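Hey, weird one. I pasted the Programmed cell death 2 sequence into the form twice and got a warning about non-standard characters only the second time. First submission, copied straight from the form history:
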Amino acid sequence: MAGGVELGFAAAADPEDAWRLRSAYFPSKLGGRPAWLGEDGLPGPGALRCARCQQPRAFLLQLYAPLPGRHDTFHRSLFVFACRGAACYRLPGPGGPLCVFRSQLPRRNRFYPEEPPPEEPPPGPVAPPGRLRSGVRLCRVCGCLGPRACGRCHRAAYCGTEHQALDWLRGHRHTCGQAGDAGGSPAGPLPGGLVFKVFDSAM
Ligand SMILES: [Zn+2]
Ligand SMILES: [Zn+2]
Ligand SMILES: [Zn+2]
């Protein structure tokens, strides 16, 4: 621990500043959907299931933590996922309710300019992305990889049956197949029960 310990404190995000929580601004944040850094090697639904109860872990937080002095860690983010089941923290044994994924990129990469992002909001509305730039679809509920599609409209994507059922109940059954429902993540607060919604108030 040559560099000592750095403490961070969570503060509620001003909805006006929601744009700062997008990937292009390299945020550290608590709750909401992950703002993925790179697009390669994202954890799939299987990797995100709790090793104990097999339910999808929820995104807890991400930390932007670049390592100076190294070419390959010019950008570096850590993503922490946690099971919401309290019982899973009491059970002994290998695997567990928490997991951490690391994503890192050199300064010159195919996702971001080499210079820091401008200190001003991007033009247009800041909707949660329904897919990665590569076209890979993200779950409408949690923002993780969504390889499963709604069987009716084939546009809404999900990480698994749990989030598909949740989205159906919270409104997709009414909007499925309608022109206004393009399949991306709906705006508005994240549903409780399966994902953390703490300070990411704009989501
Ligand atoms: Zn669990
Ligand atoms: Zn999901
Ligand atoms: Zn549908």
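That's the output from the first submission. The warning seems to come from a hidden character in my clipboard, not from the data itself. The longest strand covers residues 75-82.
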